[in-house]
């Protein structure tokens, strides 16, 4: 059975309007990403990487063009449905970790499950499993300020994984890390990819992009 692409966007345009000033951020972008792929996006500042990622991750809607996700045309779905898809299918890892400061690693990872209404016992089991996956089971009762930068990013990867998302979106995941720690984090993402997870990374760093199967270069709102 030929696997249909997980992500299939055609002729996506995105224009931001500030009053009467138009900023075209994406121009006629077409892209297919299959389940299990690991893709890196690179390109100069302002080239449209975050704009594209926001659309792919259901945070924002394109101005025109179509988006099929797992074969379903979701182009005209409203914000409520996008939020539903986002919660069900997407995990996010950010440059700045975005962990709650006075909360243990374990509770930071449990939080998405609490919001999703998962039972307490299941929450604890899955949070522990996710922390084990990133090698932090022994640090689970530490707060973020008691963890190194790399450990904090691993907690945020565990938090992104705990809902078992189809896709992990990583926006500059190593941007705040030294090169040794960055490598540790990329090794974890590589392991997740090897176990079948679809991973999309935005990065400025060639050595980070080299972990991906494909690198997509963007310039002036286009894929080049
Ligand atoms: N909310 C917004 N309103 C108006 N213009 C925007 C908005 N967000 C982004 N833009 C513009 O859209 C273009 C693409 O921005 P985007 O954030 O996607 O770039 P990027 O490739 O992610 O850059 P960086 O590497 O700096 O993060 C830029 O010209 C930017 O100024
Ligand atoms: Mg950006």
Topology of helices and strands:
Layout: E1 7-18, E2 21-33, E3 38-42, H1 49-56, E4 64-69, E5 72-73, H2 79-89, E6 90-94, H3 105-115, H4 120-133, H5 149-161, E7 167-171, H6 179-194, E8 198-202, H7 206-209, E9 214-219, E10 222-223
Parallel strand pairs: 3-8, 3-9, 6-7, 7-8
Antiparallel strand pairs: 1-2, 1-4, 4-5, 9-10
Helix pairs in contact: 3-4, 3-5, 4-5, 5-6
The chain binds adenosine-5'-triphosphate (ATP) and magnesium ion (MG).
Magnesium ion is lined by residues 49-50.
Name some characteristics of this structure.
binds magnesium ion, 224 residues, six-stranded mixed sheet, Rossmann fold, four-stranded antiparallel sheet, single chain, binds adenosine-5'-triphosphate, 10 strands, alpha/beta
Helical amount: 25-40%
3D shape: globular
> Mean pLDDT score, rounded?
94
CATH superfamily: P-loop containing nucleotide triphosphate hydrolases
* Shape-level CATH architecture: 3-Layer(aba) Sandwich
Report on the structure:
By secondary structure, the protein is of the alpha/beta class. It has a single domain, classed as 3-Layer(aba) Sandwich (Rossmann fold), CATH 3.40.50.300. The chain has helices at residues 49-56, 79-89, 105-115, 120-133, 149-161, 179-194, 206-209, and strands spanning 7-18, 21-33, 38-42, 64-69, 72-73, 90-94, 167-171, 198-202, 214-219, 222-223. Strands 6-7-8-3-9-10 form a six-stranded mixed sheet, with helices on both faces. The protein has a four-stranded antiparallel sheet with strand order 2-1-4-5, covered by helices on one side. A hairpin with a 2-residue loop joins β4 (64-69) and β5. α3 crosses α4, α3 (105-115) packs parallel to α5 and α4 (120-133) crosses α5 (149-161). Bound molecules: adenosine-5'-triphosphate (ATP) and magnesium ion. Residues 49-50 line the site of magnesium ion.
């Amino acid at each position: 059975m030929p696997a249909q692409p997980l992500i299939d966007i055609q002729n996506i345009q995105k224009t931001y309007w500030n009053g009467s000033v138009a900023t075209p951020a994406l121009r006629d972008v077409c892209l297919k990403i299959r389940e299990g792929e690991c893709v890196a996006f690179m390109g100069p500042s302002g080239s449209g990487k975050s704009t594209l990622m926001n659309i792919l991750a259901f945070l924002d809607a394109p101005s025109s063009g179509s988006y099929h996700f797992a074969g379903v045309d979701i182009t005209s779905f409203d914000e409520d449905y996008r939020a539903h898809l986002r919660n069900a299918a997407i995990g996010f890892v950010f440059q700045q970790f975005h962990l709650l400061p006075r909360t243990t690693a374990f509770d930071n990872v449990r939080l998405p499950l609490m919001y999703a209404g998962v039972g307490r016992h299941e929450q604890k089991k899955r949070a522990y499993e996710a922390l084990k996956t990133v090698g932090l089971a022994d640090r689970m009762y530490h707060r973020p300020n008691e963890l190194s930068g790399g450990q904090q990013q691993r907690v945020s990867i565990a938090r992104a994984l705990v809902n078992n998302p189809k896709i992990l979106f990583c926006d500059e995941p190593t941007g705040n890390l030294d090169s040794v720690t960055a490598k540790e984090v990329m090794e974890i993402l590589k392991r997740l990819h090897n176990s079948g997870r679809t991973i999309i990374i935005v990065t400025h760093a060639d050595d980070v992009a080299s972990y991906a199967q494909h690198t997509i270069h963007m310039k002036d709102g286009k894929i080049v």
